[in-house]
Input
Amino acid sequence: MQPDSSSSRPFKQRRTARMQEVAEIRMKYPNKIPVVVERYQKEKTLPPLTRTKYLVSQDLPLSQFVVTLRTRLYLASSQTFYLLVNNKGLPNMSITMQELYQDNQDEDGFLYLTYASQEMFGSSPSINPSANPVSLGMLLSGP
Amino acid sequence: PAFLLVSALCDFQEVVVASTLTYDTLRFEYEEFPETKEPVWILGREYSVFTEKEEILLDVTSRLWFTYRKNFPAIGGTGPTSDTGWGCMLRCGQMIFAQALVCRHLGRDWRWIKGKRQMDNYFSVLNAFIDKKDSYYSIHQIAQMGVGEGKSIGQWYGPNTVAQVLKKLAAFDTWSSLAVHIAMDNTVVMEEIRRLCQSNLPCAGAAACPAVEPDVLYNGYPEEAGVRDRLSLWKPLVLLIPLRLGLTEINEAYIETLKHCFMMPQSLGVIGGKPNSAHYFIGYVGEELIYLDPHTTQPAVEPNDSGCLPDESFHCQHPPCRMSIAELDPSIAVGFFCNTEEDFNNWCQQIRKLSLVRGALPMFELVERQPSHFSNPDVLNLTPDSSDADRLERFFDSEDEDFEILSL
Output
């Protein structure tokens, strides 16, 4: 198992020869899409993924990819999990990875996806939920 | 005339400091609506600032306004007696759900007029939210039901957290008999909603639902039997859609779509806020959102000696707050109420039309049914049960350098 890469610098900053990496992997797996999935830097609820880089079938619907990631993170169906493309938009879940890639691939050849849940709202710092390890444990085990 | 305009904001501090604290000076905190030709939209109703200012304020005042309260019975017997500092999203959840109950029991056209005697249904709605342990949707019930969502009492909620809790609490409210659907993964599946609203489970016993006698309900109506049955089984729908419209700030491509949500007759508004401060958004004018703010601590209210509930503090009697749409925190939940199946079909039509509007990026997708792999486990050998983790290992079956290769 790899060390938790989500807590370190973003993939783009960590890796320099990304274009070459994509070229090599695309030659070896021409029908797969190279995807980088990272946790939002300020995410407090969702756990990190152990992997950052994925090769995904081009005709896989995005919704299926989301189900796969949700299952990997042991999320209950009532928990929010948003996959934002290029840190901006919520893509249509019914399109394929190929379609998502065509419109949103980075100039280095990767498709960048960031996952996040929702922010919590409150103003009194004494009961800040993010500091409570008990709630995280309950969350991971689900209701 | 006593209200400040935007241009006079620089004098604001001095005015407040120089004034003694009376009801009139409190009103200085709130700006009146800008004189603008832009329409004002409040929960699906369009108003003109020039000709309908009174009507706008009456509509806003008629919404149930839930704020922080103090000195209520301790939550769980020994817990907090005030929600100041932590309850703002819980209060916003109460406000959007109260609007659903108002639509259900009183109608969108119902208005609250100060001092005027209200009908019994109004007090039944209000009672469902009063700060005591046995009200259907009290802060006590929400905070305690939240424990099941991983939130201890006093912790902050997000829009989805409070939506999930309200859905659970609604199951006990047989008086309202609502179908509450929360659309996850920014996808609204029509088939799921129809199945939920047409389910007659709570009415399975004849005694529990004596009104579903075709002769009684439909006497004189010429509908066919099939249509009759469908109509009689449609439960009023509360549809909540939790979203994240950006990471640190709202992606401006969603702003037009968000505005359209307030223009639909089914609109229940939006719960969300500015970072750390939850608000209940009920409409917009120009590039500003109009909202009710729970961040005022009022003393808890109890019925008086004659059994009447003093209700003035549950209505916002000053002009509502406004803020720039661009300041909206991206984490929100959008709400809609569809009393009948026809309302729901009409809502679907509007959403489809909206997806064709140029410059309005859809915030969520509307699909007829769940993609086949969700409903048919054979296709991809993936079902939402506890053995998923084992099966997944087969999907991540090979590796190439650092890549994980999905064999799907």
Summary: The radius of gyration of chain A is 16 Å. The first strand of chain A starts at residue 32 and ends at 39. Residues 18-28 of chain A form the longest helix (11 residues). Chain A has a mean pLDDT of 84.
